[in-house]
């Protein structure tokens, strides 16, 4: 059985972010071993990547979503994210981060 790994937007962006070379190298190494994991992401990551201003980078980032399970954001997931915010686990400004965690927790 493979370890299940949820990828939030930062895992995709770190692959191309040369401002932090160590992080970029670790991300590329992880990405080279992606087949060792049961990998998933979500519609929120897909939406966030689509907001990338650089068209070439956006295309590269979106292509990384291929062959990855993309979970929808359900009402139950939104409720859990709202719960996290209401208990100050995440601030309201970090609602998308709460969504990422809720997706990772509530999906298989």
Concise synopsis of the structure shown:
With 108 residues, this protein is an alpha/beta fold. Helices cover 56% and strands 12% of the residues.
Fold blueprint:
Blueprint: E1 3-6, H1 9-16, H2 21-32, E2 37-42, H3 43-50, H4 55-63, E3 69-71, H5 75-86, H6 95-106
Helix pairs in contact: 1-2, 5-6
**Helical amount among residues, as a percent range?**
55-70%
Q: Oligomer, anyone?
A: single chain
Overall mean pLDDT: 97
Tally of structural domains: 2
Helix tally equals 6
In N-to-C order, the SSE pattern is EHHEHHEHH
Give a written overview of the molecule.
There is one protein chain. With 108 residues, the protein is α/β, with parallel strands linked by helices. It has two domains: 1-65, no CATH class; 72-108, no CATH class. Helix content is 56%, strand content 12%. It has six helices and three strands. The chain has a three-stranded parallel sheet. The protein is globular and about 35 Å long.
Properties at a glance:
6 helices; 3 strands; globular; 108 residues; three-stranded parallel beta sheet; 2 domains; alpha/beta
């Amino acid at each position: 059985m493979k370890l299940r790994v949820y990828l939030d937007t930062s895992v995709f962006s770190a692959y191309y972010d040369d401002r932090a070379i160590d992080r970029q190298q670790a991300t590329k190494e992880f990405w080279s071993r992606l087949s060792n994991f049961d990998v998933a992401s979500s519609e929120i990551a897909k939406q966030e990547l689509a907001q990338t201003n650089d068209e070439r980078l956006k295309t590269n980032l979106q292509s990384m979503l291929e062959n990855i399970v993309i979970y929808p954001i359900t009402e139950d997931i939104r409720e859990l994210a709202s719960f996290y915010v209401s208990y100050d686990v995440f601030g309201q400004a970090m609602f998308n981060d709460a969504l990422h965690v809720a997706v990772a927790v509530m999906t298989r």
